[in-house]
Amino acid sequence: MKNYTIHFLLITIITFGLGFTGFEYTGAAAVRFICLIAGIGLLISCLDAVLLSRRQQKMRKGLKAEKVKKNK
After folding, report:
1. What is the pLDDT of residues 35-67, one digit of tens each?
2. What does the DSSP assignment read for 17-50?
3. pTM
4. What residues form the membrane-spanning segments (predicted)?
5. Residue 52: CB partners within 8 Å, gap ≥ 6?
6. Cα–Cα nearest to 33, from 20, 48, 51, 21
7. Cα gap 2→42, rounded to integer Å
């Protein structure tokens, strides 16, 4: 999911610019909805990147500790 962070960011910025500028056109409600969905996807993607990186750091520390125990 963290591979899509940039995509969600771009979609959110573009749809925000189109949907919330104050112009009224036929698809404004749909564009605002897409902006909402892309924003939620961006939030989940960012959280996923943070949580996975912390989990990987913990796993690396655990593996290093096991190697030290085996070497003794």
Report:
1. 899 999 889 888 887 887 777 777 677 766 666
2. HHHSSS---TTHHHHHHHHHHHHHHHHHHHHHHH
3. 0.65
4. 7-23, 29-52
5. 2
6. 20
7. 9
Joined tokens for residue 3: 């591979």
Give the burial string for 23-55 (b: 16+ CB within 10 Å, else e).
eeeeeeeebeebbeebbebbeebeeeeeeeeee
- φ, ψ of residue 62 in degrees (nearest 5): -65, -40
Two structure tokens written together for 1: 């999911």
What confidence score (pLDDT) does residue 66 get? 65
Return d(Cα 72, Cα 10) in angstroms, integer: 51
- The CA distance from 18 to 69, in Å, is 58
**Residue whose token pair is 């404004």:** 28
